[in-house]
Write a structure and sequence with these properties.
The complex is a heterodimer of chains A (275) and B (324). Chain A has 275 residues and is of the alpha+beta class. Chain A has helices at 2-36, 73-76, 105-108, and strands at residues 49-58, 89-90, 93-94, 98-102, 118-123, 126-128, 131-135, 140-144, 150-154, 164-166, 173-175, 181-187, 195-201, 206-208, 214-220, 223-231, 235-243, 248-250, 253-256. Chain B is globular and about 60 Å long. The chains are: A alpha+beta (275), B mainly alpha (324). The interface between A and B is large, with 53 and 52 residues.
Chain lengths: 275, 324
């Protein structure tokens, strides 16, 4: 009887491990096939245009919420801001909006991958910057400027999830995201207020709005696109835009104070997504 | 059902084993609290490796900070519960003469090992957080129910001679209490599903209504039929008291969660209310399990019409344990 119980337990555990490993394997396989899918390389004709704009915030600037860093003396004692930076509004302009192009020529061509890394730094127990854009397979570097240990944990849906510790003074962590994904939340599970977002695109036509709400997307091939504006808490908005040869276009947008992003864990219905 | 009268049984309860089972139950409650603190503080992935923590069994004090405190404490208490369960299983195996009790000890140990493995998988495969965390919660509560059962089976009250009565037909208490245990267990899983964002809140609210109705019917039936029998009436009254507290904590925890949804980090009172809600849920399960076991012990299945009916007779509790 004991032998039978033991055998059953062992079989259940093995089955669970195999299922989980199998699911992981499938994900990697998809990644590889995605990378193999070929599109013609974009060849510049020198007639590219520029999209610039300002992102406004209609309503009073939200009060910045205080972060309680007392759980970690190194964080509490660090210099720097101790307020949440999920909504940064200054003079009616909204920062940290990820702006990118969708459709048109950017979906028809492939674009060279930059070799210079995009860096996410941990300083004062916060991520800098809060929102970043990166191209697929572009090096992604995480540095720790703090005198404490962090763990970096992106939770993508189509890329491979990872969770890695980085101690004080540890060398940078280098990773790549092989599949386009907008956007990947990043969290430090040791310091739950530390959050960032990474927009991964197959092309270089994206920008993040600065503190004054401005953004610029340069070298845009002529064509008609959907211009997507994404904000962590205020959600997504889109505009149709057509860029003629060598045209510079201004595309401003306004976020209303009452707008919120989509579903959260407080929603009523089921949210389970099976792999 | 087996006939235990054919086998030798202990003449007296094993008090040492009973005390160890009580210690195990208390440690399991502490473990449940630690687990709830991990979830409520979003600390589940704060230690990225397993079974070691930052490459060590005992972490350095400078690593024991922020959310790591919750995750590492959870792992540490889990280890203590594992060793205590092993001790209990070994003790039961050599000291117990009831075969099914020896098996129960081994089941408890298998459960704690499986639970540790599931917890490890939760760390190894963070992308399947909800899919692994919900079974982790289910096994946790099931293990607690098994530990409570061992306490009941080794208790002195279980061994006292009791008058056995025939369970009434229709709404048989043996069936009703069993259904209630199952419903509470499902409800605890739905609650875990909500906390781990596998489900929305709706299934948990529906579950709360179903469980409340079932508990109300069960308690009303027990009190109506066995008012004078404190062996059954007392746990029934505890269950209804726990249910009232649990409903209040559930509403409070949800409202606190709603109001703190925009905060940069988990805050009080959401954390404490959620932890208390989980613990009272576990205690409710413990109490309905106790009630179910006692009903199975002292209530014989209802007789079919035409068969000879025995109103009541004295039984030895140890023998009745075989029916569970």
């Amino acid at each position: 009887m004991i032998k039978r119980i033991g055998t059953i337990c062992l079989m259940v555990m093995l089955a669970a491990v195999l299922i989980a490993v199998g699911c992981k394997g499938t994900k990697n396989k998809n990644t590889a096939s995605e990378e193999a899918g070929g599109k013609p390389q974009y060849a510049s004709k020198g007639d590219e245009g520029t999209i610039t704009g300002k992102i406004s915030y209609d309503g009073p600037a939200p009060e910045l919420k205080k972060i309680d860093m007392s759980q970690d003396a190194n964080c509490a004692g660090s210099s720097g801001d101790k307020t949440a930076d999920d909504i940064l509004v200054a003079d009616g302009k909204l920062a940290n909006v990820f702006v990118y192009l969708k459709g048109g020529p950017v979906d028809k061509f492939s674009f060279p991958t930059p070799s210079d890394p995009v860096t996410l730094d941990q300083q004062g127990c916060r991520y800098h910057p809060r929102v970043i854009g990166i191209q697929t397979n572009q090096p992604f570097k995480v540095t720790n400027s703090d005198s404490t240990t962090h763990n970096i944990h992106p939770s993508p849906k189509v890329n491979q999830e990872w969770n890695q510790m980085q101690a004080q003074g540890a060398p940078p962590i280098e990773k790549k995201f092989p599949r386009p994904e907008t956007l990947i939340p990043v969290k430090c599970n040791q310091h739950p207020w530390m959050k960032a977002n990474i927009g991964v695109l197959a092309h270089p036509y994206f920008a993040v709005s600065a503190k004054d709400g401005t953004y610029t997307i340069k070298n845009v091939p002529p064509g008609t696109y959907t211009l997507v504006f994404w904000h962590e808490t205020k959600g997504e908005q889109t505009q149709q835009v057509t860029i003629a040869a060598k045209e510079s276009k201004t595309q401003d947008i306004t976020y209303k104070a009452g707008a919120t992003a989509g579903a959260t864990s407080m929603q009523i219905g089921p949210t389970l997504v099976l792999p | 059902m087996t006939d235990i009268k054919a086998r030798p049984v202990n003449d007296t309860p094993n008090r040492g084993l009973h005390r160890l089972a009580i210690i195990l139950c208390c440690m399991t409650v502490a473990l449940l609290i630690a687990g709830a603190l991990v979830t409520s503080n979003e600390a589940g992935d704060s230690v990225p490796d397993w079974p070691l923590s930052f490459g060590r069994w005992l972490i350095r004090s400078n690593n024991f900070i922020a959310n790591v405190r919750y995750e590492y404490s959870h792992r540490f208490i889990a280890g203590l519960v594992g060793f205590t369960t092993l001790a209990l299983a070994v003790w039961a195996y050599f000291a117990e003469r009831r075969d099914w009790m020896r098996r129960l000890g081994l089941i408890a140990f298998a459960g704690v090992v499986a639970q540790g493995m599931i917890g490890g998988m939760r760390v190894w495969f963070p992308e399947y957080k909800a899919l692994i965390a919900v079974p982790h919660a289910l096994v946790a509560q099931s293990f607690f129910a098994v530990a409570v059962s061992i306490v009941v089976f080794t208790s002195r009250s279980w061994w006292l001679p009791r008058e056995m009565k025939s369970d009434e037909k229709g709404l048989a208490l043996r069936t009703l209490t069993g259904t209630t245990v199952l419903a509470v267990q499902i409800q605890l899983v739905l609650g875990a599903g909500f906390r781990h964002q596998a489900f929305g809140i709706a299934p948990h609210i529906v579950g709360a209504v179903v469980v409340s109705v079932l508990i109300a019917i069960t308690v009303a039936t027990v009190v109506r039929r066995h008012r004078e029998n404190s062996y059954l009436a007392r746990p029934a009254k505890f269950v209804i008291a726990l249910l009232i507290v649990q409903l209040g904590l559930g509403i409070g925890a949800y409202l606190a969660r709603l109001t703190s949804a925009g905060e940069p980090q988990p805050l009080e009172p959401m954390i404490s209310l959620t932890v208390a809600h989980l613990v009272v849920g576990a205690l409710t399960l413990a109490m309905v399990v106790t009630l179910m076991l006692r009903c199975h012990q002292v209530l014989a299945p209802a007789r079919q019409p035409g068969s000879s009916s025995v109103e009541s007779h004295k039984i030895h509790s140890a023998a009745s344990g075989s029916a569970v």
